[in-house]
Each structure stands twice: as structure tokens, then as C-alpha cells.
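Proteins fold reproducibly. Next comes an illustrative record:
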Amino acid sequence: MLVSLHKTDWIIREATEDDFTEIRKLYHLVWGHQRPEKYDRWRYFSSPLGPSQISLAVKQNSVVGAFMLGPVEMRIGNSIVKGAYAMDVMSHPDYVGRPVFIEAGKHCVESATANGFKVFYGFPNPLSLPGFVRRLNWDHTGDITHWVRPIRPSGYSKVPSILGPIADYATHLLPKGRIRNFDIRIQKLGANDLESLIKIWRQKQRLCRVERNEAWFNWRYSSNTLSDYEWVCAYENNDLQALAIWGLRNQKWGTIYDGRARLTELLGGNPGALQAVLKTVIERARFRRAVLLETATNLPGVANILRWAGFYAHRRMPLIVRSLSNINIGANIHYHPNWQIYGGDVDTF
């Protein structure tokens, strides 16, 4: 285990599962709320590639900073490499302005490299972006569009109660797409059907992307996420044409339940079938009283389908990447058009 003594009052070291409680304490202190323990265990320890790479800044027995990389297989050019996404970067309020984040970040990448990781990516918030780019040598390649589709605006606390019903009615006037004659089924797909849609995803020809396979889908959409994911499938003459996966955090999230539904997958080559599953997702989200439906993608074809269903471009999310300079990974991850991103790749969804 790599350990670094900092010249002030903390040490930097790799985390173990024994640090779980202290990490959660820091999260609560930094963000003012606590996620379900079951979710955090899924997030930190259950990836098919093993536990997350976590570096901690520790003063005596208290965690005062954390930097985390979640493992995931990535397809870069024609190669499959061990990659990771940045997540849950935190500094204790008393240590803001001190180099806890920077030292933990350097240590985490060094440890991950020793453990065989080759490519890193992330979507930092505006406060941490400068540190990633200027101090940790991550590259901001460009931005990914965050898309939003209003479902039930009255669920927002800032919407006056008198205007809520009017705003909700207005969302019914937004386009939703059409189901046409497709047979819609809510069901988790088996390996063969899933692979047929993954092949279409791969044919989009973007060189850098998270590798989707059965193991990844089973992990990413586990019940342990407490997001009640649904798989919405469209068939034509019993032939699978499209799949959408969406989720809404359930009431086990307690006071931080926010009513935001996430569209995390939209797979298939038939535009009509994609519209059909998306319309079904919108209807299902309304039935479950979601406030809005959101996703993120940089794929033009998917963006057009989202617009047809009433989504609008809400904001831009910075994509940052990091790789080792002494390895050949088959494609330039610093060239933004090489990237293929969708909702399931984003750590906050």
C-alpha cells in the first residue's frame, strides 16, 4: 500500500473497507446529507473489476479528504483497457484551500497506475474543475450536453402552488414521440438480445467509450443502486428493435429523494423504435410522479430523438481525461470527437 507523509498534519494513504464509516462521515459533513449505506457499498466495492481506487487524507483517525476512481472497462480504439471515472472528490471544510484534494488526487492516480489502470475520465463540478486541470494534469477535452425533459414541474419547491397545475398541464403539450405499432415490454433482457443492441452501439464508430457488456449492465443497473431501474423494450414482429433504461431513486433515499428520473441507456438502430421506448419512459416517469427526466449524451442521432420527445439542452458538462504518457492505447483520448458518452457513463446518474 502506498503511503505519503504530508509536510503538514495529515498522511495520504489508500483506503480499505475498514474506512467506509469515516468516508461516509466526511461525505455527510461536506454535502450536508447522507446517501443510503447500501448504495455506497455498491458504488465503492461492487464493480466487476473490483473495488474503487480510493486515496484518503487522514489526520489521526479522521478522514479529512478523499479522491476516488471507480473501475470500468473502456474501449479505446480496438483495445479494451482498464479505466476509471473520477467520483466523490471531497475535502473537509477545515481543509478547503489546503492541498488535500491535490495530494490525494496525485496519490490516487499513482496507486491506480500501479494496479493496472490506464485511462481516467470524469465530469467535475465547477469548483473542482480548475484543480483537476491546473494541478493534476487532467485535460478538459470539451463538453457533453445535459438534457432535461420536464415531467411534473409542480414538484419543484420554487414553483408557486397556484401555478403548479398549469405548469404540469403544459408538459403534456410537449412532444413525446410515438409508439406506432411497436410491441412495448418492460423486461430485463437476456444476454443474447442485449448483445445484439450493444453491437449497434459499437457501430457508432466513436473510438473512446465505456465498454458495455452483460457484466457491466448487471452491475450498473443492480437493485443495490436503489434507483428502481426499468428496462423498456420495443419489438416489431417479435424482433427486438430498441431498449431504454431509466431509473428513479426510491423512497429509501429518504430526505434527499429529489424526484429526478435518469434516462441512462437508449440503444437500437430503428429511430421509430427509439421514439417508442422513449415515449413509454416519459409516461412511466409521469406515473411514478417524477419531476423531470434527464440524461447526458454527445451523440447527434440520439440528441435528435431526445428533441422529438420534448427534451431541451439544459447545460454543458465538462469532460476531463487523463492517461499515462508512456503507453499506447490505440486512440487519442484527448481529442473530444473521439468520445461516445451516454447517461450510464455519468457517476451522478
In short: The chain has nine helices and 14 strands. Residues 159 and 187 are 35 Å apart (CA to CA).
